[in-house]
Each structure stands twice: as C-alpha cells, then as structure tokens.
Amino acid sequence: MTRAAADPVLQVEHLTMRFGGLVAVNDLSFTAGVGDITALIGPNGAGKTTVFNCITGFYKPTEGRIGLRHGNAGMWQELNGLTDSSRRSAHRADGALFLLERMPDYLVTQKARVARTFQNIRLFTGMTVLENLLVAQHNPLMIASGFTFLGVLGLPSYSRAEADAIAKARYWLDKMRLTERADDPAGDLPYGAQRRLEIARAMCTDPILLCLDEPAAGLNPRESAELNQLLLSIRDEFGTSVLLIEHDMSVVMEISDHVVVLDYGVKISDGSPDQIRNDQRVIAAYLGVEDEEVERVEAEVGL
Amino acid sequence: MAVDLSAAARRARVDPAQALKDAALAALLAFGLFLPLIGLRTVQDIRNELTLETRWPLLFILVAIVGVGRLVYSLAIYPWLQARLARPAAPSATTTAVSHAFARWFTPFALGFVVVYPILAIALAGQQGALKWIDNFGIQVLIYVMLGWGLNIVVGLAGLLDLGYVAFYAVGAYAYALLAKTFGLSFWILLPLAGTLAAFWGILLGFPVLRLRGDYLAIVTLAFGEIIRLILINWVPVTNGYAGISGIPRPTFFGIPFNASDEGFAATFGLEFTPLYRTIFLYYVILGLAMVTAYVTVRLRRLPVGRAWEALREDEIACRSLGINTTNTKLTAFAMGAMFGGFAGSFFAARQGFISPESFTFMESAIILAIVVLGGMGSQIGVAIAALVMIGGTEIMRDLDFLKRVFGSDFDPTQYRMLIFGFAMVLIMIWKPRGLIGTREPSAFLKQRKAVSGALVREGHG
C-alpha cells in the first residue's frame, strides 16, 4: 500500500467539471500523500489544469468532494460529518479538515494553505522581486499592521513584522539564487528565474500543499535538474506536499513518489513511477497504440 | 547599424527641389481643406438672409503658413532632428549628478515653496493682488492636487478606471453644506464626517462593479457620477436643485469668524480687517489636507493594503492565488479614494459658500482623470505637477492680456483652454506615454532603491 492511500493530505473524490456540454474532468478520484511529490500527467487537453483550478478554488466543481487536512491523520474521520454540515472546515486541537470545493479561491490559500503557480507565469512584473515576495505574505502582515489602522500610525510592531517578512523573503531569495536581483523588477528577470521566483512566492504563503502547474516548461536541461533538487528540498526540509502537473518526464520520473495519469478527463492510471512507466494504457495514451492493434480494431469494425 | 545611420543621415540631407515639391503639395492640401472652412463664410445679414462672404487674405496667409512651415521643416528641422537622433545619447556624469540632485531636493524645495507661497504672493503682488494669487491660483490648484491624489489611489495604484470620481467630491460638498446649514455643525466636525460619507458611497459604488473590468467598469462609474449629479438636480426639497445651496457657513479660526465684527479674527488679534486672512487660512487648511492625503498615501503604499492594491493592478488572479481577498482590496481602494474626494468636496463647499450641481459635471471627472494620467499613474509628484500645469495654466490664461493686443480685444484666451489642453495632452502622450513621471518607486528594497521602468508596470485591467 502506498503512502498516498495510507496517509493522504489531499483527497479528491468523484470530481466532475463540466463547461456547458464539455466534460473536462469526469468522475476523477485520487489522493496525494503527506510529504509526497504527486505528479499529475497526461496528454494536452487531458484536464490537468482544470483539476488544479478546482483544487485551488478558481473553479467550482460540478460534482465531487475535495478534502484537505492539516495535522493529524485522524482528522479524516471528520470528513463525512463535515460534508453533511454546511460548514467549510472542521477544526480540532490536533488538526483541521477543509472542503476545498466550498471555499473561494483566496481562502483556499489563506485558510487551507494551498499555494499554486501558473502554467503561464503570473508575476507582478512591475513590482520588484522583493515586493513580489512581500505581497505573498499579505495576510500575516495585514494582521501585524492592525488591518492598516495601526500601520498608518507607524507603530513599531508593524516595522518588526515587516522586517521578519523581509528576512523570510531573503531566505527564499538566497535559496533561489535571486538575491542579486532582489531590487529589480520581476518582469526584467530571465525566464528560468521568473519560474523560480513564482515558486518562491508561492512558498512565502507557508503552504501545506504546493500545486505547481508545469514548473519545468521552457527550462533547459540544467535548469530542469536544478528544479528537481529544489522540489526535493522543499519536500524534505519543509515537509510541504507537492502536487505537480508536468510534461517533462525526466522531472516526473525522477522525483515523483506517486503519479496520476489523466486522459480525456478520466483517470487511466495511478501508481508509482515504475508502475506508470510500464502501464499499457499510459503508453497508448501518450504514444498511440501499435499498428497491429489498429489493424485488428479496424478489422473488427469492418473498415 | 552604422551603415543604416549614415544612410539615414544622407537621406536627411534632402535636395531643395524635393522639399519644394513637398511644400507645394502641403500648401495645395491646406488650400483644399481651408477653402470651405476658412475661405468661405456664411453670414446672416440684417434681413435674416444668409450671404456668402469670402476671406481670401486670411486663406492666403494660412496656406502660406502651411507651405512655408513644411518647407522649413523639411529643409532645417527634420535634418536637425535626424542628426540629433544619430548622435549617441550618452548621459554625462554631470547630467546624472544634476538629475540625482533634482530627485533628492525637489520634494523638500516644493514643500518649502508651498508653505511660504502666501507670504511670497503678498510680498510680490501686494495685498490686493495677492488675494487673487492665493485664492484663484493657490487654493484652486491645491484642491485639484488633492483630488488627483485621491483618484490616484483608485486609478494609479489599484488600476481601477473610475470616470465618476466627481460624485464623491459632490457627496463631500453637499454633506458639508447640508449638515452645516441644518445642524450648524462646525467645519472641523463635518470634515471627517463628509469624508466618511464619501467613503461609504465609494463602497456602495464598489460593490456592483467588483466583477467589472476595463471598459465596463469605466462605463458604470461614469453612470454613477451622472446618477449623483441628477439626484442633486432633481431632489429639490433637499438639494434645492439647479439653484444650489447658498449661504453655507464659512470655516472659522477655531471658533473665531473671519469678519469685520468686534469678535472677528482681525479685531481679536488687533489687526486691520482684510479678506486676505480668511484666504490665507483656507490656503493652509487645504495645504494641510493635501499633505495628509500625501502622507497617508505614502504610508499606505508601504503597508500590505497598498502593496495589495498595486498587486491587484498587476495581476488580479495571482493576487487571489496568494490568499488576498480582492473584494476587500478593491473596496478599500474605492473607499480611500472617495474619502479624500469627500474631504476636498467639503473644503470646496466651505470655501465657496455656494454649491450647485453645475460644479460636479463629468467635465470635472475628466479633468481629474487627465491630471492623474498626465502626471504618471501612481506618481504623487507627477500628479501634483500635472495639477499645477492644468489648473494653474487655466488660471494664468485669464491674465494673458497681451494676447488681446495680438488677436483683438474680443479674444478671450480662456475660451481656448480646452484646445490648449488637448494639444498639451497629445504632446505629453507622444513624448512621455507613461505620464510626466513614468517610473514607479518600489515600496521596499533590500540593498538599493531602483525605480521600476514604466514599460513593465501594468495599467490595470479596469
């Protein structure tokens, strides 16, 4: 039994997303284990980003349940009770449970602590690299500034909180090798650095689950290898669970603990990287089926 | 590249024959255009009949101006511009030092200047002349500086295009006028109250437009401004309609009125009575209000709420992905901007003593927005300079009597202000498409504060 099944942080059940007549995701269920790197793969248009948008609250799923827990694994016992109630979350001394499909997008990050990046990088290009990381710490700083009222008066408690925020930003800048560019506008950074900054910005929200939408897209092989190291260190040092959409198989196969394969909005396979590599359905979805098989099917239907 | 440049330089040295042909063509074009527009004129005579009048000399002069102008341009100005472009623009050490010194000393110098401005005006123009310079010029410009700074929060920082900003100015003015007349409350109590009421209306406008972006947001805010104005016109029992509200109590010097009576300001302090004292007092009140606006905005930009406004302008979806409640962020921007508009409005009512819906037309919104855009969205110094140029320019135009000597005695320069504004705007947008101050000051820095180029800063989506 894999860790994903034994100790999930995220549990997606019967997720369906329809846009008018188009079924983008159909009855999808999977779990992501605590402290795992879970990869969501599939051909273009398989519905991966739609799943991300449902998890992070940007879409309201047509059907299905998305549960996320903080703290103790025992929190999952609350799941059915929470579903029957009209509440969004259940809190106990040893943890909390959230139903993400009931939460608006900003609360998914603020309360459930799920952070995400975007397929087409979305940085605040006209703000400096440092400012990008400070915006990510909006909520704790907002509280420290007494919801602006105390901050306008210039109380020292806010200055301290801001210094802490800058120190945290500094940590991520050092880790991402962006310290030299801290005072440059984010839009001036080269592509690979922008990708790293977007991950750093997401990490500045202190996520339990980090959702990365194609983090290796457009990176060269060396940058791709660095990304692997970075994701492993995020997993190992911070215990942050990672859910990633990826096309780059070198990234997926090297670092994932668990892989979920989608095709046409349906899950076609689920398991360890080795299992996925040898799964006939996955090979068929990616590479197409062999010629003999096509001939056989054609013969069956009388072509 | 070098080859290209020399080729351009060779092309720049046009042969006179070509230039002459070009100028003739331009003159011909001008003749074709101006013949019906200027050469012929319809006049109604005494018997109420339309007669056609020709103005050949004027037509000839204008066509000649176009032709000669074109000739001069292609023979002299164009080659000069090309030569200037071809020269590599390397900023020398001295010019950088000068621009650094300018950036460093401009704000303190400008602050010092506005503080001593009334004294300077009295010293230079005498008591009678100073009244006009302080009231019509100083106070008027400062009101628009304050309105520009208020709108700058909504448009420049949060990137929400608001075409109905004057509505909040009106709410502030009417709130002060009605409450002061009805309940006899003092200016200093009503000032925060008027600001709060305007902020409330800002939130009220904010709610329906939360989902709107760009053109749609602009249309709805435009409509909101008109709604407020139409209510002011039609709710006659309260607002007195077109006739407006007169006899609004004037602000007092902490209880001491500015009048010629024995309890008046002049008598209390043993001075000779002159209306100048009230004007100077009002000047410092609006200066103080504008400074509060500037200070609060500067502070807010360094607080999470200000950064969230700017982040909202840059990318709303990324904001939401970082756990920022964009609804609250937009509403606080609307409320803050509206509050400063309300302050300015209540000051306006107290200064004028009379308000009517005519002071709150769409034209006002357009002027305030033009100030923000010309100044450079988000830049406070830029907005202040733009307000000085636009509003101060209008006031100065009233005094350009020498123009009457040139164009005849029935020439009124203020009639041409919109034309001149139009020209000024087009020119500024060509030379400085991001406004007078096109760079953005970052709100925090690690080692060195570097201005962000305007090319990277987004204008917001709505």
Keyword list:
heterodimer; A: 303 residues; alpha/beta; Rossmann fold; 2 domains; 6-stranded mixed sheet; 5-stranded antiparallel sheet; 42% helix; B: 462 residues; mainly alpha; ABC transporter involved in vitamin B12 uptake, BtuC; two-stranded antiparallel sheet; 17 helices; 4 strands; 70% helix; globular
How is this fold's topology laid out?
The complex is a heterodimer of chains A (303) and B (462).
Chain A: H1 3-6, E1 8-19, E2 22-33, E3 37-41, H2 48-55, E4 63-71, H3 79-84, E5 89-92, E6 95-99, H4 105-110, E7 114-116, H5 129-136, H6 138-144, H7 149-153, H8 156-175, H9 191-203, E8 209-213, H10 221-238, E9 241-245, H11 249-255, E10 258-263, E11 266-271, H12 273-277, H13 280-287, H14 291-301
Parallel strand pairs in A: 3-9, 3-10, 7-8, 8-9
Antiparallel strand pairs in A: 1-2, 1-4, 4-6, 5-6, 10-11
Helix pairs in contact in A: 5-9, 10-11
Chain B: H1 2-12, H2 16-39, E1 40-44, E2 50-54, H3 56-86, H4 93-157, H5 166-183, H6 187-209, H7 214-234, H8 236-239, E3 245-246, H9 265-268, H10 276-302, H11 304-314, H12 316-321, H13 326-352, E4 354-355, H14 362-375, H15 380-397, H16 402-407, H17 417-431
Antiparallel strand pairs in B: 1-2, 3-4
Helix pairs in contact in B: 1-3, 2-3, 4-10, 4-13, 4-14, 4-15, 5-6, 5-7, 5-13, 6-13, 10-11, 10-13, 11-13, 14-15
